From TrEMBL:
It holds the Pfam family Exo_endo_phos. The keyword Nuclease applies. Residues 39-228 form the Endonuclease/exonuclease/phosphatase domain. CDD domains: MnuA_DNase1-like. This is Endonuclease/exonuclease/phosphatase family protein. It comes from Autumnicola tepida. InterPro entries: Endo/exonu/phosph_ase_sf, Endo/exonuclease/phosphatase. The keyword Nuclease applies. Keywords: Endonuclease, Hydrolase, Nuclease. It comes from the Bacteria. GO terms for molecular function: endonuclease activity.
């Protein structure tokens, strides 16, 4: 970890030691030229921060230097991570990148200006010792003819509230495209269906094109799917997207407030023989529950901790690449 904050107090150092040990026991180690660790994390309102080791009740934002060190400690366990809810103010993101060190880089979108976009960006952070950009970066735009479909068919009538962001990377000799998204939550589940169907159809068309930039396509992010097996889940997966069983298990929790929620996903396509349309071999997957460790010596409520770390747990998948 690059030192950008001088002399962290003892309570921070002790907590980071516990966090590092917990991460060692729960996240697979990086193995040079052998594996690839891809992750996604909705980091709640990831914008500004208060440059104090311990924020006070009157401080806004609540996120402080201790919080950023914990976030960076988690992120560095992965090779590339998609982050949702990055705000216009990227002070916390810049500090995180400095803590990660010179071997880390990022690529991100501009701010979504419309109200439904909530002033958010999509971002990827990646370890350049293990992953590099391979040429493609684009936002997904819905074809005009899709917007003219009958409303009764649950078709999307406008562009995505927060445009999905696709970027290609390379690790060893494997090139892959990650598509990150943050589906509109809306007032009820029915408001999410058009976006879920549209993104699934878009990805299916792209993945099925033999002349596409590359076939190793993985979608990841906050799908805002409420429960395992609910209508949103079925709607999204009906185009052939596959979520590994490890991420369908109840132990792979997404929300710090409700273990039944199924918001975040990592998924890819399989053919009609259920063979993954990936040249990378899937190994394992899971989520990381930071709740018992991160900031645990601060005696914080879950709500306060959600604004300092996040209300979502990071989700990860491991692949064999060489």
């Amino acid at each position: 970890m690059t030192k950008i904050y001088n002399d962290p107090p003892s309570f921070v150092l002790k907590n980071l030691q516990l966090l590092e040990a917990d991460l060692d026991s729960k996240i697979p180690p990086k193995k040079l030229d052998r594996n690839l660790l891809i992750a996604t994390w909705n980091i709640r309102a990831f914008g500004n921060l208060t440059r104090k080791w311990r924020s006070d009740e009157e401080d806004s934002p609540k996120r402080d230097l201790h919080s950023i060190l914990c976030i960076a400690a988690i992120i560095k366990r992965f090779d590339v991570i998609a982050i949702q809810e990055v705000r216009a103010n990227i002070r916390a993101l810049r500090d995180t990148l400095k803590i990660l060190g010179d071997n880390w880089s990022l690529i991100l979108t501009d701010v979504t200006r419309e109200d439904k976009g909530n002033g958010e960006r999509m971002a990827y952070l990646f370890d350049t010792r293990r992953v590099n950009l391979s040429g493609l970066a684009c936002e997904l735009v819905v074809p005009q003819e899709w917007l003219k479909q009958d409303i009764s068919s649950n078709a999307l009538q406008t562009q995505f509230a927060r445009t999905p962001y696709a970027v290609s990377f390379k690790s060893c000799d494997k090139t892959f495209i990650l598509v990150t998204l943050h589906i509109l939550y809306g007032k009820n589940s029915s408001e999410r269906i058009p976006e879920l169907k549209a993104i699934a159809k878009w990805l299916a068309d792209w993945a099925g094109d033999t002349n596409a930039y590359h076939q190793n396509m993985i979608t990841l992010g906050d799908f805002n799917i409420n429960a395992r097996g609910d209508l949103l889940d079925k709607t999204f997966l009906e185009e052939g997207l596959y979520v590994p069983q490890q991420l369908q298990h109840p132990s792979a929790t997404r929300s710090i407030f409700d273990q039944t929620k199924y918001y975040d996903q990592i998924a890819w396509f399989r053919d009609n023989k259920e063979t993954p349309n990936l040249s990378m071999e899937f190994q394992n997957a899971g989520s990381y529950n930071f709740l018992p460790i991160a900031l645990q010596n601060r005696d914080l409520s879950k709500l306060t901790l959600s604004y300092m770390i996040s209300d979502h747990y990071p989700l990860w998948a491991e692949f064999k690449v060489c």
